[in-house]
Specification:
alpha/beta; TIM Barrel; about 15% strand; binds 1,3-dihydroxyacetonephosphate
C-alpha cells in the first residue's frame, strides 16, 4: 500500500502576517522541487487569510491549528470550520498536546472539533501522544489507544478517509529529544494495528500517520524510511525555509 507522504509544518504561536507570507512563499517554491509529496503549513489564525491567498496557486496545503465544532455562535475566542473554508483553508490540526495539556482540552472536546471539521469539509489532523511519565510507566499503548478510540468516536469509515493521524510523543516536542526511528515505527505500527481492529484493514492501510517531535533535517531521512511513518508534523524546524525545505525534500 503506498501512501503519499505528507510533510506538515505547525508554526504554533509564531510569526507576523508579513513573516508568514514570506515563509509560505519560500516553502511553496521549494515544494515544487519535490512534487511527489504533499506539503502543508499551519500558520497562526491571524495569518491564515494572507497565507491562503499568497499560496492559492500552488499545491501547498494550508491548515488552521485548531477548529471549533459549531459554524457560528457564542463561542468567544473560537474559529469555526466554515470561517476556515471561507478563507480556502481545508485542513485543521485537532488535539495537539499543547491544546490538551496547556488549555485542558479533553478527548471528548477534541472529538467534537474533529466532527465539526468533517461536517464542513475540513480535513482534521488528529494528534495523539504520551507524556514521559506515561512512557516510563509503560502506559504508552494504553494512552494512545484511549486517545484514538475517544478521538475517533462515531467516525465512520467514509469519514476516516479524510483524517490524518499524527503521533507526537509529548516528551519529544520542542525538547530536541526525537523518538528513535525504532520507537516511532513501533508506535506507528501499533496505531495502524489498532485502526485495523476498528475499521477494514485496507482502510487502515491507507491512512497516513505522521510523526512529530523534534523532527530536523538530520533525522528526517531515517524517520521517513520507516514502513509506517507516512510523514511528519514539524514545529521548530518548520519556521525556517531552509530547514523545512530540507525536510520536505527528504530522501
Ligand atoms: P517540534 O518539532 O518543535 O518538536 O514540535 C513538534 C510539534 O509539536 C508539531 O506539532
Amino acid at each position: 500500500m503506498s501512501r503519499r507522504p505528507l510533510i506538515a509544518g505547525n508554526w504554533k504561536m509564531h510569526l507576523t502576517v508579513t513573516e508568514s507570507v514570506q515563509l509560505a512563499e519560500a516553502i511553496a517554491a521549494t515544494g515544487s522541487n519535490c512534487p511527489d509529496r504533499d506539503v502543508l503549513i499551519a500558520p497562526p489564525f491571524t495569518a491564515l487569510a494572507a497565507v491562503s491567498n499568497a499560496v492559492a496557486k500552488s499545491p501547498l496545503l494550508v491548515a488552521a491549528q485548531n477548529v471549533a465544532w459549531e459554524q457560528q455562535g457564542a463561542f468567544t475566542g473560537e474559529i469555526s470550520p466554515t470561517m476556515l473554508t471561507d478563507l480556502g483553508v481545508a485542513w485543521a490540526i485537532v488535539g495537539h498536546s499543547e491544546r490538551r495539556q496547556i488549555f485542558g482540552e479533553s478527548s471528548a472536546m477534541i472529538n467534537r472539533r474533529l466532527h465539526g471539521a468533517l461536517a464542513n469539509a475540513v480535513h482534521p489532523i488528529l494528534c495523539i501522544g504520551e507524556t514521559l511519565t506515561e512512557r516510563e510507566s509503560e502506559q504508552t499503548f494504553a494512552v494512545l489507544q484511549q486517545q484514538i478510540e475517544e478521538g475517533l468516536d462515531q467516525v465512520t469509515a467514509e469519514q476516516l478517509h479524510n483524517i490524518v493521524l499524527a503521533y507526537e510523543p509529548v516528551w519529544a516536542i520542542g525538547t530536541g529529544k526525537t523518538a528513535t526511528k525504532e520507537q516511532a515505527q513501533e508506535v506507528h505500527a501499533f496505531i495502524r494495528g489498532l485502526l485495523t481492529t476498528m475499521y477494514e484493514k485496507s482502510l487502515a492501510d491507507s491512512i497516513r500517520i505522521l510523526y512529530g517531535g523534534s523532527v530536523k533535517p538530520d533525522n528526517i531521512d531515517d524517520l521517513m524510511a520507516q514502513t509506517d511513518i507516512d510523514g511528519v508534523l514539524v514545529g521548530g524546524a518548520a519556521l525556517q525555509a531552509e530547514s523545512f525545505s530540507r525536510i520536505i525534500c527528504f530522501q
